[in-house]
Structures are given as structure tokens and as C-alpha cells.
Amino acid sequence: MSAGAALVRGWEVVIGLETHAQLSTASKIFSGASTRFGAAPNTQACALDLALPGTLPVLNRGAVERAIRFGLAVGARVAPLSIFARKNYFYPDLPKGYQISQYEIPVVQGGRIEFALGDETKTVRLTRAHLEEDAGKSLHEDYHGMSGIDLNRAGTPLLEIVSEPDMRSAAEAVEYAKALHALVVWLGICDGNMQEGSFRCDANVSVRRPGAALGTRREIKNLNSFRFLQQAIESELEWQIERLEDGLAVEQATVLFDPDSGATRAMRSKEDAHDYRYFPDPDLPPLVIAPAWIERVRSEMPELPGAMAARFQRDDALAAHDAAMMTQSLAFARTYEAVRDACVAQGGGRTQAAWPKLAANWLMGEVSKRLNAEGLAIERLPVSSAALATLICRVADGTLSHSGARQVFDALWGGETDVDAVIEARGLKQMSDAGALEAIVDEVIAANAKSIDEWRAGRDKAFNALVGQVMKASKGKANPAQASELLRRKLGA
Amino acid sequence: MALTRDDVSRIAQLARLELGAAEQAAMLEQLNGFFDIVERMRAVDTRGVAPLYTPLAALGEVALRLREDAVTERDERAAHQAVAPAVQDGLYLVPRVIE
Amino acid sequence: MNTGHPDGVAALARALRERRISSEELTRTLLARIEAERELGAFLCVDAEGALAQARRADERLARGAGGTLEGVPLAHKDVFVTRGLPTSAGSKMLAGYASPFEATVVARLGAGEPGGPPGAGMVTLGKLNCDEFAMGSSNENSAFGPVLNPWDRTRVPGGSSGGSAAAVAAGLVPAATGTDTGGSIRQPASLCGVTGIKPTYGVCSRHGMIAFASSLDQAGVLARSAEDCALLLSAMSGHDRRDATSSERPAQDFHAQMRAARAGADGGRPLAGLRIGLPREFFPPALAADVAAAVRAALAALEKLGATLLDVSLPRTELAIPVYYIIAPAEASSNLSRYDGVRYGHRAAQYADLAEMYRRTRSEGFGAEVKRRIMIGTYVLSHGYYDAYYLQAQKLRRMIAEDFQACFAHCDVIAGPVAPQVAARLGEQAHDPIKAYLADIFTLPASLAGLPGMSVPAGFGDGGMPVGLQLIGNYFGEGTLLHAAHALQQASDWHLRTPGATA
Lengths: 493, 99, 504
What we know:
Largest sheet of chain A: 10 strands, mixed
Largest interface: B-C, 51 and 74 residues
Low-confidence stretches of chain A: none
Number of helices of chain A: 15
Shape of chain A: elongated
Strand content of chain A: 15-25%
Shape of chain C: globular
CATH class of the domain at 9-269 in chain C: Alpha Beta
CATH superfamily of the domain at 9-269 in chain C: Amidase signature (AS) domain
Mean pLDDT of chain A: 92
Radius of gyration of chain C: 21 Å
Distance between the termini of chain A: 60 Å
Oligomer: heterotrimer
Mean pLDDT of chain C: 96
CATH architecture of the domain at 9-269 in chain C: Alpha-Beta Complex
Helix content of chain C: 25-40%
Largest sheet of chain C: 8 strands, mixed
């Protein structure tokens, strides 16, 4: 349990999350229909997805494989035998009148997710993760008072990841969800596209007086953005606390969050929720996973973010924070490693120890700033790792000033590819000719007696002004370090 | 234990069946008749016996057979919706769904 | 030695291959007979054009010396198998006029073959056969499209749920028909109509394309005039199907060869030498009608004369099979039938105020009384707080029942007894007490629960000259042994050759 969380108006918050991660298979969990998003309504709903009479489910190996991957990644037990059950309820987007899910014996049992909350490391225990099929969609725009049903999504494989009620604040729940999201995307088992519903959370929220028994929980369904997750939990907490403080009881319920009103409301369609009549699906014998299969999947696992971050700290001497930034996603980490290696290759071993840090700084600085500004993921970085490395080397060997480097980066972003050609064409090469710099420095000293007196009087700012003058006179080509060093010498400091 | 009228209406609601008064009365009588037959079964001691959910499991462990992850189905919407009670723009139409 | 029924599958296949008859003329003859026997109510739909077209194609193939093992031999399918080009209703108003976009594996294998698969047996489909709604019943009176009459006495039921199949074969409208058996739906009507029927081991025939009643019990099988004919069809329709996760992965079997293979130590006069037939004392209770008992004993004596030894065995939980079955089957059915909601296909109520009412009205109008009864039972036993006491308890007893069989098979090869406690009842007799009818399934339910293969073999006649069937139950995948014993009996007897007088 993560303890010592802040109370809200004297109430302890208890949150557990049920997350539906859509597995990145080509076909559905029990049929050969495509899972591609955005097809015309019902063009990807085959006979089985429509529950036509006589159809039978056959389980997709790819879905199981992804569940095993997840289980191994979170240190869970991958059940050697798990069972598919039928969850019976009537709903127009549920063609069979039951959902095939795992109930008593899920494929993934236990496990944990670790993440940073501020400078604290939190651990949330997982109860289980089970395979199940998604339902279709009800489109509510009016068809003469009717709803339209699109079953393209029916039968899409989901991994439902259930956490223990270990979270003690909305912020912690959001960080957990982000860490989980990063992990499933890292593992390549889910595309993580939240707009398309590939990663959705249900939040079980309750409050209690510290030390008291668990309060009655309400489940907020289908939160498909981290922002909504935060807002929904916060407004639900408000509602529950007010109710309790008014001496009213909270009744167990399934609620929906309305982003417009920012409030939660109970769902009508869950009348039978108390009685799903689960029983083992007689069409699907037990799922048996042999140790050899688990070992094969283990051998194909990518290095996990935690391990990779540790490696960056150990081998590249990156600070913990920097290492964490470099492993924010697999793509980001791959880019970092490419840039770092290119720096070493181009810049040579001379200052090798410095390259990783320089590469990391650039990725956290200019690169991230620009990516965020344009709302791009690192996969879309328009600058090649090699070019970025050359740029970093040119700064390191003094050819470029930082302002010059920024100009070159803009050019690369704009499509240029040859760093040195850009430097040449735009005359960004820093002045290294000592004679020319000395002449400029003498001019500046002659023309700024006032500043010099102020500086001598103890105003450091004035010195910076002098350096500024030198840079100005050199049209930015002077190396600021050289310039101030020369100034100090000439002023006998 | 005998079922009551309330049990029958609760089950009918779960099963989405609408039973007329006479139908409901007959159903109540028949269900109770049936559950009299069932009582004998409930008395049997089955402790330690594993349920037999699929018959061939009586021969030994039955393992679920899997299919490879491949798209094998084409779009057959036209054929599928030819037998549908109500469709529009490729969607199945139902009375308003209230979530 | 008798070569089987002159109008049987084996004889017809031979005649067709030797071009002594053409599939087209044979098909025309049967279509005429079907037309003349409409009153029986055996067929729900007849596809004359389609059948004749198939027959002509079969004749072309036969002319080239090509074609499947049963090329050109006509048959009809129980209406729970989905068929392309022919409507499939499962005997329910819910699916009246439903057209399936795909075909059941069993239908395809007996016919032209599966899409992208090897060619099928080449049989000609004449139409679809009447049955109890969603295969729930044992009198065929639960069909939404009217009852089927027993060809031996048209005031009596043919049995069910494969009543149309049994009546059609008995009346000579088809040489063979497919059926499905969940708790006795092939064996019981075969017995009541005096034809030979086999329900193979669970998993031998694919359930793909078979409209589900109770998934862990449903099995496809055959009704025909002889064990040999059953063997021929079963060989063609069985075998692994990747579209059914419960279908057995055993290689395809030649049941016809297994049927003919001589037993070690057997000789011409005693083909069943060394065969040990167990008679469960629970299968011969006082409640067993005397005429049925006498016929069964006579058939057993005939088997003994053929070299078999009879021994007493016990299936102590035989009576418990009734509650166990009537909990498991309705539970699975209540879930399997939830898909009939009027949204994507099938019946939808004309009048409804909202979604909830559309569901309730659609299902109440679309389902018949027996189906509703079983949905209610199944929903109840699965509902909150009752699962362990009913469904789980029943599944545990199911294993005990299966173990009882294994205890018997430790010292016998085949188990035998009656199929049904009485000969065919009069139409309407069971209508007033549906629960009482469940009790009559007592002898067929145990093998169904265990998933064992079972047959009904004609064993003479009882009161009113009505047929009586002998039930043979084999061990898992012991179809060959059953067919061999039944074939030996039919080589030495003529009960299976008798036909009802009244045919057009």
C-alpha cells in the first residue's frame, strides 16, 4: 500500500483502476475479422461478430501472446491454465447476449506497477489481468428516435488490467495510468491511442475516515483521457464527501463522467449488473499455457524501461532524472541511443564521457521543446540522429555558439540535412581568429569607458554588457567565453 | 424450496421474457415441479469432485486450440444486413439506447 | 447374406456408381414421394430445383467416373444445420425464413465440400427437416411449424427432437438424414420410428453451423435404415474442424471399414465372439414397459447368438442424470439463445415502446413454451446465489456419471438397454405435463452427459405394432465397435428392413 497520502477534508481517498488495453492484433480475439479502426459501420463485423446462428469462437494466439508479455513485464504469475467464462447481459452492442471474458481463473495473476509521484516512488499492486472481447458501439445521433449499432469493434481483443485499491489521490491514479499506458505501448501490445479508445480506464472510488473500513465505492466507466480521469475522480470525491458530510449514504453504482458538466451520473443500462450469470464457456475448453511458450515470450521481450534507465545511469553516467526522461518511451530511448552513438562516432573518443549528457540535454531541451510546440511524438522527429549528432559536435568543438546552434537546428527541422553546409551558408562559424577578436575588443573598450567604470565600481552586469557589445560587433560570431576572457585580460582583471 | 411469483418475474426479467398472467402461473407450477426432481441431486455429496464442463475432459486434460492471428474474413455487410429487421447507413437500428 | 435395404444409402450409391440408376431420376422419385407425404409434416422446406440441379451435376461427375463417396445419393438435413440457399429456422418462429450466409461443416462435407476444402461426399440435398424448436423436446410437438406424424401410426408422435429426420427415413422419403442429439434427440426418434440412428462421441462431428442448444452436449449424427448406411454418412461428415474449438483432432475415420472389420476370434456364425455387452440393471426398472422390455431382450438374445456375452453392470446414478441434464442443458441454452434479440436477424416484435420492451416482446413472441421454460430454468440455476447449488453441483455429478461408465467399460465393450421406456406416445399426450416428459429421457441422458457414442438399432415391435429400439452405448471414440455390433445384428435380423405399411 502507498501510505501517508494527504487527506481530503479529513477523508482518506481509496482508488482502484480497471484499465482496458486494446491488444494490437490484426484480427479479432475469436474471429478472423480485421481490428482496423475507422472502417465503415459493420464492414468488419463477420458472422461470428454478429453472433449469427451456428458460429463458434476460436481463440487468437496473438492475443494470448500479448497477455503473456504483459504478465512477464509486471512480474505477475502467468496461469498455466485459465478459463473463459460467459458474462450474460442484454445490450444491443453485445450481439451474443453475453461477453466472453475470464472470471474465476484469469491468465495473468498479481504483478505490480512502479512509477514516480513527485520525487516519491510509488508501487501499485495488480490483482489480475484477463483477456476478453470488446463490445460494439451504440451511436446516439438520432435515426428517427432510434440508435444505430456498429459492431466493427465487437470482438476486438482487450486485456483488462485490474489494480488493487492502492491509490490515495487522483494525481496518483493518473500517474499510475500514465505508467501503465507507457508500459503497454513500450511492450508493443497496445497502440495506446486513447482518442480511438485503445486505452480506457474505469475508476473505483471511495472515501473513508482514516483507519475506518473501506467505504462504499462507485465505479466511473470509460475514462479515455488522463485529464478526464483526473477530473472525474476529483468531482466524484467532491460528491461522495459532500454526501457523507450531509449524513447521507453512498450507494454502490456504476456512473458515467460527463466532460461538459464535469459531473458524474449513474448509468441506466446497468440494471442487471448484479447478476451476470457467469459460467465457463462450453465452446472454449481451458486455455493451457506451457512453460516453453512463456520462456519463448520471455526471450523475445524488449529491455524494460526501468532496466534501460538503470543502464543509462550506469554506463552513460546520466542523472536519474535524465535517464527517466530518455526512457519515457521506447522510441525516445532508441533516438537517444542513436544520437549518443553518432556523437561518439563523429566526435571521437576524445571527450567521449561528455557525449551521452550532451545528447540527453539536446533531446530534453531544443528537441522536446520543438516536438511539444508542434504536438509531435518523437517518432515524427524530422531531424536525423546523425545530423543532430553533428550539430552537437559543432557546439562542442566551438564552431557554433548556442544561438548559432539554434539557427542550425531550425534549418534541420525545416528540411536541411547537411549541418556544415548550413553553418557555411549562413556564416554561423564562430570567430576563432584571435587578431580579429582582439581588434573588436579594443574598439569596445575604447567606446565604453562608462561601462568599464561601473564594472570597476562593482557592477558585474556592466561586464556582461561589454561582452554583449563584443558579440554584437562580431555579429554573433565571437565565442562569448573567448571574448570575456580577452576582455578581463585587457582590463587587467 | 419452492419458487415464488416474484422469483418467476425476476427470472423472466433477467431472461427478457414477457409472461402473461396465465403463462406466469403455469410457469411457476412447472418450475416448482421441476425443482422437486432436482432436490435429490442436491443431496449428493460431491466434495472433492471436479466439475466436468466439457465431456472429453473425462479422458484427460483438454487444451484450448488456438488460431494464428490473421485476417481471414471479408466485408459481407450486404449479405448480413439482408436479413436484418432494421438498418440504415449500414447501422442496425434499435430503440434509443440510454446508457 | 442381406446386402442392406434396397433403398438404402449403400445400395443406392452402388447403383449410381454402376449407372444402373441416375441421381436425377432417383431425386425425382423421392421429391414425388415427399410431395405425396406432406401430411407427415416431416419437411419444413423442399428444394426441388436445387436438388435436381445438384443431381444433374452428380450424374455428370458419375458419368466421368468422378465424384464423392456418396455421389448423387439424396438426403435431407435437420433444420438446425444452417444451409446456404435454403432457409434455416431450427423449428422456431424466431428464425422463420432466416437465410444463413454460410453452411454448416457437416452439410458441406456431405454435399459439395467446404469452401476452399476438398470436395465433399457429393450427396444431393432435398430439403430441411422438421424438429422440436431449437432441438428442445422429445415428441417434435414443440416445432413452431406443426407436429410430425409417426409413419407407423399417424396418431402418434415420431419422437424428437429429430422427429422429421426419423419420420422421413421411416417413410422412405429419404435414404438418410442428419440429426442432432443433445439428450437423445437422434436415438429416441430413431427408436420410435424404427430406423437406425447414431450419435457419435462428443467432438467427432463439428458443431460449426449447428444452431446451438447446449454446447457441451450437442452432437451431430445420422438417421438411416441400417448401421452400414450410418457408417457411410458418418465417415463423410465427421473429422476435425478448426472452426470448432471443441472438435476432436483425431484423424478422419473410415467407420465403414471399422464396421466390417472382423473381430479377433470371430467366425462366420459368431461374428460377435468375445464381445462383452454390459446391461445396466438401472436400465431395466419396473417402470420399463413390458412390450419394450420384451423386444429389447429378444434383440439381446439375438446378439448373444451371434457370439456376444451379456453381463450385468450398474450405472448407479442413472436417475440423477435427469436433474443433472435438465440443469446443464437449460443453463447453456439460456445463454446460447440470448442472441435472439431482434436486433440483427430473426423475428422482431411489431409493437414496442422502448428497447426493453422490444427485447421482451420479440423473445416472448419468437420462442415457444418449451423453449421459454428451459430459458427460465437455465437463467434461474445460473443466477446469483444458486450457481453452486445447481449448475456446479450438476457438473460435478456429471463427472461422477462419466466415471460410472468407465467403471463399466473396465469389463465390457458395449453397454446395451432400451432407448425409451415406452413406444411412441399419442399426439398431444405429453402436452399437459411437460416436466413428466423429461423423465422419459432417462436412458439416453447418461451417455449424452458423458459425451459417449450411442446408437438406436431397430429391435422389433411392441404394443400397436410400434417400433422399439435397442440402445448401444460405446466407450469414447468406440463408434466402430457399435457399428460393427449393430451391423452384425442387422445381417442376422430383418427388423430394420420393415417399413410402415402406409406409404404413398
